[in-house]
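Chapter summary example: a protein plus zinc ion.
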Amino acid sequence: MGSREFSRGRRVVARLPHGGDLLAEIAAVAEAHGMKTAELRAIGALQHARLAFYDQQAKEYHEFAVDEPVELVSVLGNVSQRDGATAVHAHASLAGHFGGTIGGHVAPGCTIFACELILQELVGEPLERAYDEQTGLPLWRGL
Ligand code: ZN
């Protein structure tokens, strides 16, 4: 276990563009405001979605598509850095006409219908991701 303290910085509110990719648009907002580390939350709707589940034994993501319009009930995640680029890590709960919710790790390919994003900047030494041997995941380095 490791931890580090950050101060709360700026809070940015954004309306993400119709037709954009959820992860890419979140990264673009963070970059536009020069945020290296932030926490994020969002709500809205997607035209279709692509989520993933991490197989802890195989150490690989299994992606699945949701090929219909869904409500974006909740998106929680964070922004940090990986190999000098903005890395958005987000999980989402989705609801559709199927009468329930599904969720998972947000993968590229979530097409925005409408989305309201709030980014809370965390001020301090930027969090960096690096490959973690034990989990096979790009986890925060130095924590
Ligand atoms: Zn994840």
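Key point: The two ends are 7 Å apart (CA to CA).
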